[in-house]
Amino acid sequence: MGNSRSDYTPERLARAAGPFGEELAVLSWADRLAARGPRLKAEHIERHRQLCVEFLRVSRNLGPYQKVDYEDLAARLQDPLDADVGYAASRVRLLTARGLAEDAAVRHVARL
Length: 112
Prior knowledge:
Helix 1 (10-17) packs across helix 3, helix 1 runs antiparallel to helix 5 and helix 2 (21-36) packs antiparallel against helix 3 (42-62). The chain has six helices and no strands. The mean pLDDT is 83. The relative contact order is 0.13. By secondary structure, the protein is mostly helical.
């Protein structure tokens, strides 16, 4: 989000995170703090805090999100295991964040 060569925009990340934006921000924050421990510089903490704040702002502006209809998705996937439906839902969310239509994303995931 701060490095144009390697970071995704907050908008793309927020669409991919869907209803889990706050959870993603908390995990990202915890990962940053744990990654370098006491060697982490104050400016690195502040930069990451700003990135998380911007991500949360974008994520909250995109919501509220519709709840996933896991039963409908399971029917479209031809009777998968419960764990597969959750995985499929996450894949569909990532594909739609990249710009694929939801029906096309479900068809793609059903072939996996």
